[in-house]
UniProtKB/TrEMBL annotation:
Keywords: Methyltransferase, Transferase. Residues 1-42 are annotated as: Disordered. It comes from Clavibacter michiganensis subsp. insidiosus. This is 3-methyl-2-oxobutanoate hydroxymethyltransferase. GO terms for biological process: methylation.
Amino acid sequence: MNETPQEPTGRPDEAPIDATRSADAATAPAAPAAPVPADGST
C-alpha cells in the first residue's frame, strides 16, 4: 500500500528529505566548527 503512494510521492518526498539533510549537514559542521576555533583561540 505504501509502495504505490511512495512512487509518485518519491519526487516530493526527496525535496523535504534534502531539506532535512541540508539542515543536518549545516548543524554537523556548525557544532564542530564552533569548538574548533574556540579551542584554537584558547
